[in-house]
């Protein structure tokens, strides 16, 4: 009888190009997948319906893929610290495999489980699957972590990347007796989001699962990559990969994406084409930079990186925050972006920067309020990327130009010059002149007739106020 080994899925909800799963299947063909619906995550105050439902969709496809290879994905609801050691002991498992994570909670939880399994003489095998390079592989000459993206990119891009790995050819399922044993430990059928208390009817910009991720990658590279650097900042244009959620849940591996960029570079003949591909490579590196930062500086999850922002005198006006959340600030580009977030669970990256700058620099509200709201709404919400982006926008994080303030009007004029994006998400003012939409200079009587609010703050005034506060705390 084949010995059972266990592969614990977390942020790697795929069969293809999965380092840990591939290694486990090569060591022992009877590899059983497991996913734990962890209450420490699902009951957090930064979890939203869109993300949970997207995850459920990814798990459904993953379970189907396991069945297609003759294997099984076991679903449990409860703390992995309780479930995995009990399951491993019950099935007399030799080894438990999983891919590592940079998040502080995951690292603490994993350490607990390793200790519990080691006490039962069960081997643990772990892999860095969600990164192209382990955190300690990309360090400064002084052997310290990078805190500025530019030098990180130059080092990171120069390093040789691992090739994608093939998917297991076959997996074997559990026997009837083994199924009975795991059922007694609380095995459940995969629930729907609403069964867990998370109702989402908004759909997704990218469908869940690895099939959709690979199809989008093909479409992006075939149709959009050649103009990526030109179009990626225009929210009304389909110009980005939309693969952020696929990377967050691991329905596609960064190795797969990187290999595709290498292939595209080999096949392009123009400098413009190469520049577009490299621009996308740099975005993949930004993702990894923030992952490395969170690994080396786990305190980022709780507060500012820059010392003078740790006690910044935020005004934290709850009424203004509510207006920002609901897309009722009177600044069209800001409100359009917030409506997109609330209705779709996603927001264009340029708009994420605009609304984050507005919350922190115009409304002078603590960036952590916005960071949490994003995590409650985004279906691609990832702690490292979301935290890194918010700290970049707030000027509290790792950035060689710490004081950056976006003017909503100039951003709209530059990146939504015809007001297409604004009109899409703010239908009540879609009939107004384009110039008024992108500058935000809507006459109060027109705003009133459309049921649209007048600006809740004056940008120039708030800019001066923020700069004064900044100078005060820095001094």
What is the residue-mean pLDDT, rounded to a whole number?
Answer: 95
Number of helical stretches of at least 4 residues = 22
Which residue ranges are poorly predicted, with pLDDT under 50 across at least 5 consecutive positions? none
CATH domain class of the largest domain:
Mainly Alpha
What radius of gyration results from the CA coordinates?
Answer: 24 Å
Strand content: 5-15%
Count of strand segments: 5
Q: Can you list the strand order of the major beta sheet? A: 3-2-1-4-5
- The CATH superfamily of the largest domain is identified as DNA Cyclobutane Dipyrimidine Photolyase, subunit A, domain 3
Q: Any guess at the CATH architecture of the largest domain? A: Orthogonal Bundle
Helix proportion: 40-55%
Which fold name is given in CATH as the topology of the largest domain? DNA Cyclobutane Dipyrimidine Photolyase, subunit A, domain 3
Reconstruct the topology from this structure.
Elements: E1 5-8, H1 19-27, E2 31-37, H2 39-42, H3 49-68, E3 73-77, H4 80-90, E4 95-99, H5 104-119, E5 123-127, H6 149-158, H7 176-184, H8 210-224, H9 228-231, H10 244-249, H11 254-267, H12 271-296, H13 318-326, H14 332-344, H15 349-362, H16 367-377, H17 383-394, H18 408-415, H19 420-425, H20 434-439, H21 444-450, H22 459-474
Parallel strand pairs: 1-2, 1-4, 2-3, 4-5
Helix pairs in contact: 4-5, 6-12, 11-12, 12-17, 14-15, 15-17, 16-17
